[in-house]
Amino acid sequence: MKAALRNPSFLIGIAITLVILATATTSLFWTPYPPTKIDIVHKLAEPSWQHWLGTDPFGRDVASMIMAGARSSLSVALIAVLVGAGIGIPLGAFASACGGWVDNAMMRLTDLAFAFPALLTAVMITALAGPGAGNAMLAIGIFNIPVFARVTRGATLAVRELDFVMAARATGRGEFTIMVRHVLPNISAVLLVQITIQFALAIIADAGLAYVGLGTQPPFPSWGRMLNDAQTYIFRAPLLAVFPGLAITASVLGLNLLGDGLRDLLDPRLSRSR
Q: What gap in Å lies between CA 3 and CA 35, rounded to an integer?
């Protein structure tokens, strides 16, 4: 606990992340205005006490849309990371335990997946399956699978050769038992840090898909589509692009700082070097 309080990356990262999570949670039951409410009379209003961040070309309250967009972005990112980790971690552990041609075949498949840029892969999947938040979750989650598989395999190979694992193997325990009871718990720190990194990347990917019209669909707000809508009014109302851009930046920055802080706290080699 004392080490966490002395780690600025961890403190700043978790503070920003908690604010974003609180904003998304609050939007479930309260926003200053209904996020989809159109009020043409007050369109493109400047920030004021009535509309904290102003209004968009349809008179919708920007602050309410930012809050609802946080819920959308975090939901897509969470499901995408769960899909990637839920499939990729077991695959990486299985490849490491089997070794031989099974390991080589699975790693070559991950290499093939890495040959295609993440956003391009997501665009291709959503273009084939159709736009929408559900397909965006699936597309981003599929790209996360090889990432988690390779990270898990690399961390597992390092731990499987340690003395306590060799001792467990000498007692006659099976590879599956050793993997579940001894190896995976000892690489949980690596996986936790990777989860925070992929969560941040998933938010960026979701914003990119929404920006090109393949993510969350109207009328529900999303940060990426707010940026797309704002580009038409970039000279007349530049703040329309600033606020969703700041929301994306803050979310990614908070998660990256949180990941760096967790790495510093959970990696014993870094702990000894401080």
A: 41
Cis peptide before 221 (omega within 30 of 0): no
Structure tokens at 247: 């929301």
Token pair of 56 as six digits:
């968009």
**With the CA atoms of 133, 138, 143 and 148 taken in that order, what torsion angle do they form, in degrees rounded to the nearest 10?**
110
CATH topology of domain 10-20+53-273: MetI-like fold (1.10.3720)
pLDDT score of 112 more than 70: yes
Report the distance separating Cα 268 and Cα 272, nearest Å. 6
What's the CA gap between 174 and 159, in Å, rounded? 16
Phi, psi values for residue 55, rounded to 5°:
-130, 165
Estimate to the nearest angstrom the gap between the alpha carbon of 127 and the chain centroid. 21
Residues contacting residue 151 through CB under 8 Å, at least 6 positions apart:
88, 92, 190, 191, 194
- Residues β-bridged to residue 61: 55
Burial (CB count within 10 angstroms: exposed 0-12, middle 13-18, buried 19+), residue 247: buried
pLDDT tens digits for range 174-220: 777 888 888 888 888 899 999 999 999 999 999 988 898 888 888 88
- Cβ-in-10-Å burial (0-12, 13-18, 19+) of 134 comes to middle
**Is the pTM of the predicted complex or chain greater than 0.70?**
yes
